[in-house]
Design brief:
Elements: E1 25-27, E2 33-35, E3 38-39, H1 40-47, E4 51-55, H2 56-71, E5 77-82, H3 89-96, E6 108-111, H4 114-122, E7 130-133, H5 139-147, E8 151-154, H6 157-166, E9 171-177, E10 200-201, H7 205-214, E11 218-223, H8 235-239, H9 242-254, E12 261-263, H10 281-292, E13 298-301, H11 305-308, E14 312-324, E15 327-332, H12 341-345, E16 351-353, E17 363-368, E18 377-384, E19 392-395, E20 416-420
Helix pairs in contact: 2-3, 2-10, 6-7
Amino acid sequence: MDAGERPRPDPRLIETAPWWVRPGLDIDPDGRLRIVGRDAEALAQEHGTPLFAYDRARFAEMALTLQAALAGTGLPYRVRFAMKANPQPEILSAFRALGAPGTPESIGIDACSPGEVLRALECGWEPAEISFTGTNVSERDLDVLLAHGIHLNLDAISQVERYGRRAPGTRIGIRIDPATGVGYSEHLEYSGTRPMKFGIGLDRFDDALAAAARHGLIVDTIHFHAGSGWLADGLAAFEAVLPAAIEAVERARAAGHPIEEVNVGGGIGRPARDHEHPVDLDAYAALLARRLGPLDVTIACEPGDLLSKDAGILLGEVVTVEDRRGIPFVGIDFGWNVNPSYFIYRFAQEFVLARAANAPRTRTVTVAGHINEAGDLFAEDYPMPAVQEGDIVALLNAGGYHQAMSSTHCLRPMADAVYLDR
């Protein structure tokens, strides 16, 4: 073996596939990581690191799977992609291609800023396919939203008043605070016992309806968002949120409003480690049908993580392997400026060695980025195979809330991206 040649893995190491293997992300007969049939290390060498590699078919697969589960209930439904997860036009085109505007196959857009609305319009969505749910909406925001006829879900009574002065007699949704939530962790529960920045509590719901009445506004949607990243064990907690939405529908209808849609938000996550389990989408759809079906409404959801998370892989180079006070550190050539998800949301993620994707994880290490901040760590006490400087590693579940949130902190560049089709 030449001095610069890397050891080839024992083929026996790939006999048992890791939990993350799927169509479009697998291991070749030599034990090397493949992304959409392309060698991951070769992709990194061709395009440089850090590099986002996207499996565009995976975005569509997850959307179709969710649509099929909802369609199985026989109830009317709408699926909208939460654009904040990944607003890249090359990603949005994968959703746009699923169905023409107005067709059952169409994936709409959940927007939370005027910029996202404009991006959706530029990428071929019609105003009626876009639902806006923002917070602390300014007059400048309304200038854009009203100019394009976008339906708004308003999450504060002052917003109802401000919107009503600008667009009396039009239709709106109201985002409620259900006072209970569910998330990947407590940090990601978007409602609970303490007041949150999102939504109007049921204790002030009548005040919101009175504000709507002052401006002749018609409330046609009840919206809530319980939290982010929840998995199979969160389904019962999600069900506990629904009574608040049901009460809001009943109270709004009693006040004369024709509630046509209940928007249950997004928040369904994707497993990131082998001990985590995905939400059973058929069970999720059946739950919605059982609890919301009697209301005779369209059931809408607006997932981000579910449709995008595992469709992206972030490739980086190992630049340091060194013990520090007896702890092995693995340093890589990107930091939290490129991958802020862990530092904001504390989502766990898996690193895979590209040249030996199923190699035994024999060392417990700390994985650190290259940002000059002490907190720029991706994992501690984390099992990894033996790696060496120059290796390419893949960070899984990087398709949503990564590239969209990147920055140039420390004037470190953001990552490039490749968009791969099977």
